[in-house]
Amino acid sequence: MAVREIRVIPDPVLRTPCAEITEIDDTVRSLVQDLLDTVDDDGRAGLAANQIGVSLRAFSWNIEDEIGYVLNPRIVDLSEDEYQEGDEGCLSVPGLWFPTRRAWYAKVEGVDLDGNKVVIEGTELMARCLQHECDHLDGMLYLDRLERATRKKAMRTIREQLYQD
Fold it and tell me: In the UniProt entry, which residues are flagged as the active site (predicted)?
């Protein structure tokens, strides 16, 4: 369908929790195709619907040559005693990467375009992606998960970038 423009901070759609998809119709099918088309680019690991301006619970991913999507995703399991530390970035916070702690393993349940239950799980990068995209759908950015001093630095950098443009 279309590669859509990415919404960037401080766009309020990024801070708005997304609504459940209650009916799978042509609008939702078009949204999924746009999510898949837009995430299918080098350096893109995941994309939530609100990042393209649609406040519905859906996201796509592009991890290790696998592209997929899920509707109405919810995290149902996270490793409680194994974590990963690493720099995380976001298409909606372009050019900035900060150390973000995430669970090493994550499991998400949702549905596909036929209404069938879908389970996506993974470790490391896939786990990070699942957590990151579900956060987006809840109106959170990875910046909200940063340690206080790092978050302060990140917000200062973002303010500086906004005022330079």
Answer: 133
